[in-house]
């Protein structure tokens, strides 16, 4: 199992909408994540800074990297682009985080 952590950011005032969209995550998006080796995926929000911290457990890095090219993932990026910082292709601006401690 591989653990990954990322930091992203939503725009101010969009925390509730971000939560709503994830509460209603499309079944085909959930299935794609599982099909590409996601064992678990959690996202936490710092409401003071609007930073999101994602924590993933995946089976295989190469298989996981293929998520970016799936049609459903690109559709999701387009759907989320109005409420968070994104790159020109609408992928979230994400910074990988480095694990410094584990108990």
Automatic annotation (TrEMBL):
<dbReference type="InterPro" id="IPR011008">
    <property type="entry name" value="Dimeric_a/b-barrel"/>
</dbReference>
<dbReference type="InterPro" id="IPR013448">
    <property type="entry name" value="L-rhamnose_mutarotase"/>
</dbReference>
<keyword id="KW-0413">Isomerase</keyword>
<dbReference type="GO" id="GO:0062192">
    <property type="term" value="F:L-rhamnose mutarotase activity"/>
</dbReference>
<dbReference type="InterPro" id="IPR008000">
    <property type="entry name" value="Rham/fucose_mutarotase"/>
</dbReference>
<dbReference type="Pfam" id="PF05336">
    <property type="entry name" value="rhaM"/>
</dbReference>
<dbReference type="GO" id="GO:0005737">
    <property type="term" value="C:cytoplasm"/>
</dbReference>
<keyword id="KW-0684">Rhamnose metabolism</keyword>
<keyword id="KW-0119">Carbohydrate metabolism</keyword>
<dbReference type="GO" id="GO:0019301">
    <property type="term" value="P:rhamnose catabolic process"/>
</dbReference>
<protein>
    <recommendedName>
        <fullName>L-rhamnose mutarotase</fullName>
        <ecNumber>5.1.3.32</ecNumber>
    </recommendedName>
</protein>
<keyword id="KW-0963">Cytoplasm</keyword>
